[in-house]
Structures are given as structure tokens and as C-alpha cells.
Amino acid sequence: MTVQGVEFLPDSRRDWQDSPAARRRHAVTEANLTRHLDGPQRVLDAAGGTGHDAVRLALRGHDVTVLDPAGAMLTAAMACADDHGVADRVHVVQAMAEDAPELFGPHDFDVVLCHNLLQFAEDRVGLLRALTAPLREGGLLSVVGPASGALFVCPASDVLDDLRAAGAEVLAHYGVDVQSGHPLSYFQIIARNV
Ligand SMILES: C[S@@+](CC[C@H](N)C(=O)[O-])C[C@H]1O[C@@H](n2cnc3c(N)ncnc32)[C@H](O)[C@@H]1O
């Protein structure tokens, strides 16, 4: 599939995505999420980037839509899906997460990922509302963000409040330490759309 837009993927970003620390973070957050899933799900990966989360979930049999405004990211995501033999279960949409309510129907997804995006949002509750709009009632929202060691940090306690303000019920809160002894760590919160 050809996608239009930004056809530039900085090498530093690619190196980071492929680093052991990043792979470990994707593996841990996938394992946490999987504990809450039962059978194949329709997943929206908002800000899905190069598809590392999407391909992992597609390999488990889930059907994943990667949404990202950057065309180069989506091209890389499809190449990654191809390489792993799951291109039929990975789809791409070039758009902003804030536009999700206009792009999808109200029950189109069982799971929405918001991984490493919320810390950049000016209106976090507004973004979470936009992302729960296409989520079916009872569907799950997984939010991952840096807890420490990053330029943009959004405290997990604030995100818990944001999720409740957006009408979601918090089910679980995990700490995700990427590397022992390394200052960069993440939180992951799983919430249910009520
Ligand atoms: C830090 S990466 C996160 C990638 C991946 N989800 C992860 O956890 O590694 C940020 C991604 O967010 C995308 N992005 C930035 N602003 C966005 C927005 N408003 N809506 C959706 N994606 C956005 C960028 O293009 C980039 O691919």
C-alpha cells in the first residue's frame, strides 16, 4: 500500500524503535494488555508509528488499524507487517488521533491503543474522548506514557484522572521499566469504556 505525506523517517527514530529497550517496552506492554483480552479483537493503534505494537498484536490474531499522520511511519508499518506475514491483518489510516470520531463509527473497535502520545497533547481529556468515540461499550483503552526520564512526562496519577474525566473506568495500572538502572520508565493504564 502506498501512503502519502511525510516520507521521512529519521534514522535516529528508526534506531530507537529497533533498540533492545524499545523492543522490551513493546513486549511488556503487549503482555500486560493481553492479560485483559479474550479472543481476536479489532484494535485501533492511535499514533501507531512504525507498527511495532500493531504487528505484535496481528501476530496474535488481532485485526489492527494503525492511525498516524506521518506517511513514512505508515509505510514502515506496512513493510514490517509484510515482513512478518500479517499484512492482511494490519491496515493504515493517515490522520490525527483527534479526528478519530469523524473517521470511524461508534462501535468500530474493541481496543484502542494510545501509546506514547498523550504526553504531547494540549487537551488530554479531549484526546481521550476522541479515542473512546470509536470504541464499543466495554471496549478497552490502553494508555502508555513515560513516567520518568523523558523530555515530555505526564504523571500517571494525572492520566488516571483524565481517563475518569473522559468517562472510562480504570482496570489496571502497570509500571514498565524499560531497562534496569536506566532513568527512562513508562506507565501503562488499561481502562474500560463505560
Ligand atoms: C513517540 S511516537 C509513538 C509511536 C508508538 N505508538 C510507540 O509507542 O512507540 C509518536 C507518533 O505519534 C505520531 N503523532 C504525532 N501527533 C499525532 C496525533 N495528533 N495523532 C496521531 N498520531 C500522532 C507521530 O507521527 C509518531 O509516529
TrEMBL record:
Kindly give the Pfam families that the UniProt entry links to this protein. Methyltransf_25
The ranges of region (Disordered) come to 1-22
This protein's record includes keyword S-adenosyl-L-methionine: yes
Q: Which UniProt keywords apply?
A: Methyltransferase, S-adenosyl-L-methionine, Transferase
According to the UniProt entry, its GO molecular function terms are:
methyltransferase activity
Gene Ontology terms describing biological process: methylation
Does the keyword field hold Methyltransferase?
yes
Q: Which InterPro entries match?
A: Methyltransf_25, SAM-dependent_MTases_sf
Q: Which residues form the Methyltransferase domain?
A: 43-139
Its protein name is Methyltransferase domain-containing protein
